[in-house]
Queue: 3 jobs
Job 1
Amino acid sequence: MAQVCRLGLLLALLLPVVGASVPGTVVRLNRAMLSYVSEMGKAPLEWALKVTVPHFLDWSREELHPTRIQIVNIHVPRLQLNFIDGFGVRLFAAANFTFKVFRVPAPLELILPVILMADARVAQGSIGTPVVSISSCFSFFNNAIVVDGSHSTAPALLVLVQQHIKAVLQNKLCVSVSNLVQGLNVHLGTLIGLKPVGPESQIRYFMINAPAITNDYISLDINAVLFLLGKPIVLPVNATPFILPELVGTKGAMATVGLSQDLFDSALLLLQKSGALNLDITGQLKSDDNRLNTSVLGQIIPEVARQFPEPMPVVLKVRLGATPTAILHTDKATLQLQPFMEVLAVASNSAFNSLFSLNVSVNLSLQLSVSKVKLQGTTSVLGEVQLTVASSNVGFINVDQVQAVVGNVFEEPLLDHLNALLDMGLALPNMVNLYYVTPEVFVREGYVVISSGLVYQH
Ligand SMILES: *[C@@H]1O[C@H](CO)[C@@H](O)[C@H](O)[C@H]1NC(C)=O
Ligand SMILES: *[C@@H]1O[C@H](CO)[C@@H](O)[C@H](O)[C@H]1NC(C)=O
Ligand SMILES: *[C@@H]1O[C@H](CO)[C@@H](O)[C@H](O)[C@H]1NC(C)=O
Ligand SMILES: *[C@@H]1O[C@H](CO)[C@@H](O)[C@H](O)[C@H]1NC(C)=O
């Protein structure tokens, strides 16, 4: 808990710095998610309801006999959760409590059917996490069924024992439900944990306003802060908050997650600023990987042939000075890259000589997928790689000829490099031990939708 509070303080300090930018996401948790939670929640609820019952003070035989009472089993065959429009979640549970009453001479076993009803408000906590709180809670008791030892029990005593048990449970069960919800809140708090984006860069998600709750879903507006080397990066201001349209994604999915164009722009900016997108394509003579050498370039650039009579290796330094752009159209995601490429030759004294430099423009098709908690991508080149000469130390350069030689050498390592990076993936909003399963990704005009199941795994 202290950890969460400290994180919150830190976050509160950071927020003003980056408050203007909104790399928005929307996480909508649908009814199917509540069904899953009600299945998953039975065992923890049974566990939480296992309260201690003080001794029953039996005065029936003219003197005091403290009788020990123990809950030996709790069975929750029914747990139902439903959304309450504009408020939160309603819980209904039917439970059977089995008690053992340690009476002399023979113990008594009885089953008490209990109904629990509670309303929980879901709100935004001060540190940007969802917070659940019980606003009302009631327990109702049926008559106990004596399983064992009924012949030896006076009906009057049975009534008193039941009264004792009901009075205790009346006080304790709702407290237990509240405690269970407090535990849930600690778990929900892990939403704001730092998650990796790429080398040396991280992302932290947090809620920006109160959740929107309907009868069908709870919708959380979540923004991100991106960190490079532990420092938040300031993103270009975008004044329009991201709104996820209704009825997107697959009907009946547990979660519908909307990722804005802003989130993609921000993640790409982070990758570019971190230098992770840059690469060097080294050359070696007589290698199949890099077919480029000065004798090949010499055939199309006479000055290279003059300076390098002996074949020497050529190195390509690819730098991304401009941030790549992601373009999201229905069913089609594209990445536009404009790297700057310097072509260097290794001289006989092992120094690098800059021959010329090129402005490159390349469009890549981007396929998105989700694995566990990450959005991943793979790219392939769309159309031609466009080259323009930015500078030359070797006189006139015929771009078309250079394109034929350099374009091929550059494409494959670039794709390998990008795909390795995009495979590391962007962490999606999630909580500890909660994973996306059977996700589907849809590209829409200006945003991406993920429809997914969720699974909680220790
Ligand atoms: C509780 O136990 C009784 C007796 O075994 C059974 O008839 C009843 O269906 C149970 N109720 C629930 C909610 O499981
Ligand atoms: C230079 O490249 C050409 C074309 O790939 C190749 O045939 C030749 O063997 C290379 N020369 C050396 C010395 O690697
Ligand atoms: C990339 O796509 C844009 C928009 O479709 C287009 O204007 C541009 O010419 C393309 N560039 C390349 C290198 O294909
Ligand atoms: C190459 O790109 C740089 C940076 O984008 C730009 O300033 C320069 O004008 C470009 N040069 C050519 C020849 O296109």
Job 2
Amino acid sequence: MGKVSAIVYITVALLVLFLISHSPKKHSGHNRHRRLKLRSSFSFSNPTRHEPVPFDPLVADIERRREDRQWEKQYLEHTHPEFTDDHAPGHESKPEWEDFMNAEDYLNDEEKFNVTNRLVLLFPKIDVNPADGFVTENELTNWNLEQAAKEVLHRSTREMETHDKNHDGFVSFAEYEPPSWVKNDNNSFGYDMGWWKEEHFNAADADGDGLLNVTEFNDFLHPADSKNPKLLNWLCKEEVRERDTDKDGKVNFEEFFHGLFDLVRNYDEEDHNSSHPSHDSLESPAKWLFSQLDKDGDRLLSDEELLPIIEKIHPSERYYAKQQADYIITQADSDKDGRLSLIEMIENPYVFYGAIFSEDEDEDDYEYHDEFR
Ligand SMILES: *[C@@H]1O[C@H](CO)[C@@H](O)[C@H](O)[C@H]1NC(C)=O
Ligand SMILES: *[C@@H]1O[C@H](CO)[C@@H](O)[C@H](O)[C@H]1NC(C)=O
Ligand SMILES: *[C@@H]1O[C@H](CO)[C@@H](O)[C@H](O)[C@H]1NC(C)=O
Ligand SMILES: *[C@@H]1O[C@H](CO)[C@@H](O)[C@H](O)[C@H]1NC(C)=O
Ligand SMILES: [Ca+2]
Ligand SMILES: [Ca+2]
């Protein structure tokens, strides 16, 4: 951070703190019926479901530590049910629950976890490109993406331990076991295709040494978020195999239109405003896109020709990060200039802590009532 922007920040931060300490506590009544919640998101049966990642790395860290413990317990129950006999003397699940409550109490104790101070602290870490006192959609997307990437890598690291049987920090293809939801159902997505098989594994093995380190293993689990060209190329090949109903090795217009086009269009939808020319048939934007992608003009799409849209076919973390950023900006951008100042952020704290703050449904547990609303 340059000198000038440091000065800008200090000035803005002081100004904000001044404004806050001198303004009537207009949010305090509001706060009363909010409680910061930790999510309990880990699911063995559906580990691929997409959850938004907390905006605040401190909250993410608390959730992660809690989730790790939950995961260990579930993992043990899955693999060694004999060790988790509920009737065994001394068996107690209560301590974990208490830790969880303590963490939530901590987050809801404004003396310890002051949301305003958190936002003041985080703002300069988000406002970096350029550091001009405003957070743009792009800066917020990058921030969200950074948080999501940490989360994803954390989960991959944890999962890697279950595959790395000889504990050398690498996973070989012999060690790797496909997810149980793939093994148990022959017809499920990915079974008859190449997912979790040797070709997929080898594509993820960037340096080709036959072993996946944690970076490569993370890419293996999340190919669409990878920057490894071999793996992206594999993903395109896989997409062709999956769409290629007439088995000619390429995707023709019919195969593209009935399957791929909707995915790409839905992805792009929010970028377009509703100026759909009504006289046009639905097929013409599809034909247009098809011809754009068909670089060699053979009226078929090869795997290389799918590369420009592969990230849209398999929504990447960037896609979710952008969605989350767009949502936050529409909610907090009070002056409607399309970007967020620190003051706008501080005045709308629940937008940032929205994934974990919730209007409490279970009112009986708390003493606030409708008069506060
Ligand atoms: C949070 O921090 C701000 C700024 O330092 C301060 O004005 C406010 O009183 C704090 N809130 C609580 C509940 O301590
Ligand atoms: C799945 O495949 C295995 C081996 O190919 C076969 O023995 C089993 O019957 C199949 N199960 C189902 C539900 O089709
Ligand atoms: C894993 O291997 C890849 C390819 O050689 C390398 O780029 C990456 O830095 C390695 N990751 C770690 C954590 O060592
Ligand atoms: C749609 O976008 C175009 C430019 O991309 C703009 O000129 C037009 O005003 C927009 N229409 C609406 C309804 O927002
Ligand atoms: Ca390797
Ligand atoms: Ca604004």
Job 3
Amino acid sequence: MGALCVLTYIGVGLVSIVGAVKLYFKMTAGKCKSTRRIDGQVAVITGSNQGIGYETAKDLARRGAKVILACRNLESAQKAADRIKKETNNQEVIAKKLDVSSLASVRQFCADLMKEESRLDILVNNAGVAGMRRTITDESLELHFATNHFGPFLLTNILLGLMKKNGSGRIVTVSSVAHTWTKELDLENLNSEKQWEPKLLYARTKLANILFTRELARRLKAAGLSGITANAVNPGGVKTAIFRHARKTFKYMIMVSQFFFKTPEEGAQPTIQLCVADSVEGLTGLYWTDCKQSRSSTLGDDMDVAKALWEKSVEVVKLSDSENNLK
Ligand SMILES: *[C@@H]1O[C@H](CO)[C@@H](O)[C@H](O)[C@H]1NC(C)=O
């Protein structure tokens, strides 16, 4: 056999393996099969100017909801809203400024929303960052934790005031399988006070999303708000812009692996299902992968850690009595 022939075999072999892996990802992706309409409902989706958030917003708009795109970049959100309006023929798509990494911005956004809206049915905590340089916000929060956990924590707590009015609603927080990378969560180091561990930061924020969801579901039940559910979702590997500000090496790694990843439309399916499907009605405090209930890491199941994280978060965001809707 000539060298060329061997190379051809290796080449064909590699292409087949890559193809098979890609096909596997496609086939296990999961799809929201619900055709339910949600006319009259109001939905807030953070980070919805692109990616999974955008696809989720578009889908909910198509189903008749009034959709609020809550984004840091208002101009980009406005363009996204215009595109969704055009594509879905739903004119009730609104872009609003929200920098979820800033507690002040969260409070401002909520104050405006409570004035303008009389109900809230769906809240999707989707905005997130990964692989950022070490940054402490002017509110002394570490940027990953500020954006991925503390901001959504405050946003959800305040907006529960609006959701409670109707007594039913769905809160979906976008987590990730990356939460399994970490085996511990030091509550005294959430804002990198003691140590800066860039590799595990994203994982820890995604773990926090699950713990937050579990404790939120428990508190909703305890407060007699069983019509409001909270779930965390792992969208799977999705081609997203989450790493757009990431350091170079991280970026290249992601770019290569993205070849296998889902499109944002596919990646949005599990989130959409949790927002609208009748099949998940009443299910709460759960972690989902590819539209199916799944297990988180052991740490993600630990209700003592979940409770401690909640209490710590109340302290960090200085949740006031009037912002606490789960008394
Ligand atoms: C909640 O909203 C639905 C749909 O608009 C409505 O039928 C229901 O009466 C509302 N419930 C409360 C308690 O306001």
